[in-house]
Design goal:
Helix Hairpins, alpha+beta, single chain, four-stranded mixed β-sheet, 4 domains, 9 helices
């Protein structure tokens, strides 16, 4: 079977830089590494194929030969697809070192990015819709000011770890494989503190509550998150700080319920207004509007007021307001009111289905139901 083109294997162009080649190899090595695909022979072959292409194209002389003569020119070249434990350890050590922040070449110690933090911010509906600037207090870990994050007492400094030589990692040979792991003496720091800082006790970080100003964009809703870069916990050994994620939670509103850009509410209407028609004052987030109630409006009727909803951070168009009518039954009536109401009911009932079409239709349905089950 003809060998595949090295550039095609890595998925890069022939003009790719060494950094682009290395990045492409990392991706393939992580995907097809034998430890992750123990029962997949095809992945094992793809891993060896990618390694061979990587070794050839990251060597300037071998790459020049390959570009000129192809695979024919690579015959007899060192590293042409051989699989050595040392080569595997070097290349894959670089891959995992770069990804997880550990360095071992050049005596570099491991650095650790600070942890990301989360904060739940409660907002009133009005503030979520219009946007706001809020000051929050977040407990976190910051770099110690007395030792500048080194962990060593002021005037002293940490010394290089003798176990790992300052690399923060040690290599152990286990049969065919060379395994790299965190140094047990310095815990990956690459340095050992003999005289720790009294303020942070050698940790290089201290607890602190930070006050932060959060700009909340207009239209946020529950579940939306705002990322504050670098406002998480401080890193270790010079590592970058994590991020702070502010998650929005909109408080329940006394009048409105929100569904994306739309609002809904319930409006109580008297029997007289629902029967004879009229107008009611309806609240919106922009102020009151007058809603016309047609004669004979039934409880549960929904009116749609276009453009009286809200906008969201993802959709700038304004939604609608849906007002649901709730016909209110009078309570605590006087004797005179009860008497008038009974007289009114008699007059309405005497008209049959003309005045109560829904009730008449319902009674007819009930009657047919019982007739059917009695047969």
């Amino acid at each position: 079977m003809a060998k595949r083109d090295y550039y095609e294997i890595l998925g890069v162009s022939r003009e790719a830089t060494e950094a682009e080649i290395k990045k492409a190899y990392r991706r393939l090595a992580m995907k097809h590494h034998p430890d992750r695909n123990k029962d997949d022979a095809e992945s094992g072959m793809k891993f060896k194929e990618a390694k061979e292409a990587y070794e050839a194209l990251t060597d300037a002389d071998r790459r020049a030969t390959y570009d000129r003569f192809g695979h024919d020119g690579m015959r007899g070249q060192p590293g042409g697809g051989g699989f050595s434990a040392e080569g595997f350890g070097d290349i894959f050590g670089d891959v995992f070192g770069d990804i997880f922040g550990g360095g071992r070449r050049g005596g570099r110690s491991q650095v650790f990015r600070g942890a990301d933090l989360g904060y739940e911010l409660e907002l009133e509906l009005e503030h979520a819709v219009s946007g706001d600037t809020v000051t929050i207090e977040v407990p976190t870990q910051v770099s110690c000011g007395d030792c500048n994050g080194s962990g060593a007492r002021k005037g002293t400094e940490a010394t290089q770890c003798t176990t790992c030589g300052g690399a923060g990692q040690v290599r152990m040979q286990q049969g065919f494989f060379s395994i790299q792991q965190t140094c047990p003496s310095c815990k990956g720091a690459g340095k050992v503190i003999h005289d720790p800082c009294e303020t942070c006790h050698g940790r290089g970080r201290v607890s602190k509550t930070k006050k932060l100003s959060v700009k909340v964009p207009a239209g946020v809703d529950s579940g939306d998150r705002i990322r504050l870069s670098g406002e998480g916990e401080a890193g270790r050994n010079g590592g970058p700080s994590g991020d702070l994620y502010v998650e929005i939670r909109v408080k329940p509103h006394k009048l409105f319920e929100r569904s994306g850009p739309d609002l809904s509410c319930e409006i109580p209407v008297s029997i007289a207004t629902a029967t004879l028609g009229g107008e009611v004052e309806l609240p919106t987030l922009d102020g009151h509007v007058s809603l016309k109630i047609p004669p004979g409006t039934q409880s549960g009727k929904v009116f749609r007021l276009r453009g009286k909803g809200v906008s969201t951070v993802r959709e700038r168009h304004t939604g609608d307001l849906f007002a649901k009518v709730a016909v209110e039954t009078p309570i605590n009536l006087t004797e005179e009111q009860e008497s008038l109401l009974r007289k009114f009911d008699e007059l309405v009932t005497s008209g049959g289905n003309r005045h109560n079409p829904r009730a008449g239709g319902w009674l007819d349905t009930v009657k047919r139901f019982f007739e059917r089950i009695s047969q």
